[in-house]
Design a protein that fits this description.
The chain is built from four helices and no strands. The protein is globular and about 30 Å long. With 62 residues, it is mostly helical. The longest helix is centred in the N-terminal third of the chain and has 12 residues. Helix 3 crosses helix 4.
Length: 62
């Protein structure tokens, strides 16, 4: 094993780019939540690992 636990979820480079773009172009928190779900991750994971994207989501209108 390479030292990563099963709890660590890693996006591939392509997935991360697609995820970031989708979040950056979301028009509402509802849309962002749908994107997070579509990429099979959680808001908590995004908040912990991508604070800039999490702030962008927090700044979106409901």
């Amino acid at each position: 094993m390479d030292g990563q636990s099963d709890d660590d979820y890693m996006f591939s480079g392509r997935d991360l780019s697609s995820f970031s773009l989708a979040i950056m172009t979301a028009k509402s928190k509802t849309e962002a939540a749908s994107i997070i779900q579509r990429f099979e991750t959680t808001e908590e994971y995004v908040s912990d690992n991508f604070p800039d994207l999490a702030k962008q989501v927090a700044d979106l209108p409901d």
